[in-house]
Amino acid sequence: MKALKGFRDFFPGEWAARQYIFETWREVLRRYGFVEYEAPMLESTELYKKKSGDEIVGQLFNFQTRGEEDVSLRPELTPTLARMVIAREADYKKPLKWFSIGRFFRYERPQEGRLREFYALNADIIGDDSAAADAELVAVCIDVLREFGLTEEDFVIRLSSRDGWRGWLRDKGFDDDQVGAILGIVDKIERGKPEKLEEDLAPFKLTLEEIRAFIDQPGDQYFGRTRQVLQNLEQRGLADYCKIDATVVRGLAYYTGLVFEAFSLGKARRAVAGGGRFDDLLSILSDGKMNLPGMGFGMGDVVLGNVLEQTPAAAELLREDVATAQGVEVYLVIADEKHRPEALALAQNLRDAGITVDYPFTPTKVGKQFGAASSLAERAVVIGGEWPRVSVKDLRTREETELDHGVLVDYFAKLREDELVDFLEDED
Amino acid sequence: MKALKGFRDFFPGEWAARQYIFETWREVLRRYGFVEYEAPMLESTELYKKKSGDEIVGQLFNFQTRGEEDVSLRPELTPTLARMVIAREADYKKPLKWFSIGRFFRYERPQEGRLREFYALNADIIGDDSAAADAELVAVCIDVLREFGLTEEDFVIRLSSRDGWRGWLRDKGFDDDQVGAILGIVDKIERGKPEKLEEDLAPFKLTLEEIRAFIDQPGDQYFGRTRQVLQNLEQRGLADYCKIDATVVRGLAYYTGLVFEAFSLGKARRAVAGGGRFDDLLSILSDGKMNLPGMGFGMGDVVLGNVLEQTPAAAELLREDVATAQGVEVYLVIADEKHRPEALALAQNLRDAGITVDYPFTPTKVGKQFGAASSLAERAVVIGGEWPRVSVKDLRTREETELDHGVLVDYFAKLREDELVDFLEDED
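YS: structure for the whole thing
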């Protein structure tokens, strides 16, 4: 029996790599003062019908429960976030800076970078419509990617504006439905064949040349605010990571203002993250009872994981973290079974002090114990005939120290503190 | 629109409380040398039919996908773990000490302590059949509960043995089916009416008195190994947290040897965790191709959360963690808008150094900025007319220090290091 198609088993090493991604997301978002939330994995299908583009509804894992509710495994978080904000908005000071790290499900054909079950970071700012908020959201997205060891050689943030596009197309006399349809065509401009694009644009009496001219130089009356966002990012010293690129319109129907994506420049030339403003969404979902501006971005674990693997500096950081996440600090080598009861008490004392400890459950040859110790631990404590004295062996340097067992807790706590202070000093 | 019945929205404060539970689980399991894994949220329904008691199959959220696979949201992790171990057992040294923290789903009527979606810790030891391994698993369960601030006044581990019960009943001439049926009755002994229990036992020619006599003093030929486990726990200094209590048989059909539960002694007199040995499960699920002993326990977040809330010392630890998890270290008060670009650059520098920072996106009155700072941060940095000098204000002590902005990264890194070393020294 295997996992279902498009679903993943995470064995310990694989899971440590996911945890590294989640902890990095969490750490950077916390630096920006975002707070974490979570929500159900299952929602009423109605929630997605009300808001999402058809694309997502067609990809739902949806079903009827025994109680005949029509429910769906969540394909994304924004509708749930909107539902939660509508319910308890008054309890929180604006702007909300919220993020979440969770699982999502899409019933689509599994392929490179797309699975049926995946993890994603979602970060949102609700209740602030300023260009400064736009810039903050883009900045945190950049810093997340930098924290993984990615540089301006590895990715670029492409900034664009739905509002800008809409303004330009309205000035040309198109109504909202036409604007939506035209943006659907623009969304395919990078991968579509020119003849096909021309053909699709023809009913609107637009040419690919006109579209490309706008993309090359979107006027300030349309992209002025996008330039403000870029300027704010420059003031932070993040200019090298971003550019204005009007090709980006992002698929989801509910975006209103800024849209952006983090585009990988390595082997996998594709978006590793994307988002934008959705200033009308809370109003739509609350039937007009609430009107808060909002914006957010998402970053999935599958494409990101591939990009990290393919970028040597990032892959190295990941590997180091995965290795240290799986060992222990101390392995107790029980060289004399007579002292097993004392070894158990010692394991307990060390663990009570927060030190990670392993040892063999049953009598085992000393050589085999050292084998286990070397594969798992930084240091071995050998408990043998000299009890209550024990010897501490550094398994990398082979250095040995003889000590009374009673001072081991202090000894390891001190070691850890020294290593921590050394580490902090290196960081300075 | 609300969350579905039996499902929870986790707003930031509520989620911080869950994260505190997860991080505590993780920390203690790591101390014992357990490594973390994860698995799909959705499995083939077949996996549960093959192994689980009827109780669980009747409570599945199961459905047909568009591709007509019969799938279920996972109600528990053990069948998945068995599936994974069968697939890659040869890659890992035995014993495996694995844990997982994840979500589970049961379609049952929501009530106190039972929801349709919940989180659980699962910890398992695979590939070791010793009483020493039994004791290790019980010990880590005890230490998880102690880490939350619970004491021997708040819970007790009740140790029992399926093997012991089976041996006694076989010696009385019962076959396996009868043993299963009788243990089903024993499982209800604490809550059931005596007359009803007598009536259920009658077909087996057993009396409640006989059952109670066995529970009072299960002979060494049946519970000798359970006493060995208890002795091992005594050697660790954990005797005060455990007792042998043959009343416990645990519901799941696949348990073979040790069974145990952590029973809350506070207001909610019920099990907060439970588990046992399942030495036949891997053989059953692999159709006899593999035969590794195994054991594990689970601890859900719902009952545990209630117990923590109801136990003052534990509730206090939880509250402290939730409060610190949501603030930032530094709030930038922009007292002179002229210096906003420099404030943005400063925010970036501090965040690059790992310091958590917030600030107002748009021009805001200084008093209001201090209000936001006080509710969020430990310290405010005031950026005003004295730039490049800024003042750092400790928002608890009101102490103020004037500094050049260029030394702030070092200043806050040093503060954090001092606080960390103080903290470590307090811990010693």
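YS: worth flagging: The CA atoms of residues 149 and 317 of chain A lie 7 Å apart.
IM: good catch. Also DSSP finds 16 helices and 16 strands in chain A.
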